[in-house]
Amino acid sequence: EFAYGKALAEVVGHATLRLANAEVLPFRFRSLASHISRFVDEVVKLADTRREETVRSNALVRDGAYGVAADPTLTNVPPPVREEVPHLNFAPLLNARDRLVREAERADAALGETSVSDTRNQRVYRLERLLTDPAGLPRRAWFRHQIYAPGYYTGYGVKTLPGVREAIEERAYAEAEQQIERVSATLNRVSDEFGRIAGGR
User: Fold this and answer.
1) How far is CA 195 from CA 30, 117, 127, in A?
2) Nearest 5 degrees, angle CA 179-CA 181-CA 183?
3) What is the per-residue pLDDT across 22-70, written as a single tens digit (0 to 9) for each?
4) What is the pTM assigned to this prediction?
5) ∠ Cα 67 71 73 (to 5°)
6) Is the pLDDT of residue 201 over 70?
7) How far apart are alpha carbons 105 and 195 in whole angstroms?
8) Is 146 within 8 Å of 130 (Cβ atoms)?
9) Is there a contact between 185 and 164 (Cβ–Cβ < 8 Å)?
């Protein structure tokens, strides 16, 4: 009965009317900062988990555990010893994340004021563009968003902080360090803009 199409049209229609008639654009950024903060925690944990799994797997290979557990009627090849997972420098990303959370609070407080200038409104609705990088993601430059993108191997399945996450998953640790720097720069650009919004500029 086209129920989903009708519901979607109603949501988009209400949102359009709300935005068109708003003196102060009804955008708030605390939730965005909170989600990004969680994504940062996830990639840090991913690196730690990958490091622990690698140590455990390498110990099993060196101890010959795969050979002991193998079916003697089948040809089995134990997995290779994998490169140790280095301790990545997440400090720039953690610092950028903390700054983003602080500046989002300030921007939301400023947007709660009764009157907002047209310049501030323009900054608000253009802010999403700052989450992109013209160079795009590794191996797919056409995806420019640094926070969300379809995964390289997941079809339309979304990856958060895709440049960092996929580099860790693919054990490309030098690339992970580069992507940490790029995402940190992206978050700092957004924080700069939050500061301008909070300052009324």
Assistant:
1) 14, 15, 12
2) 65
3) 888 888 999 999 999 999 999 999 999 999 999 999 999 888 887 777 7
4) 0.86
5) 120
6) no
7) 10
8) no
9) no
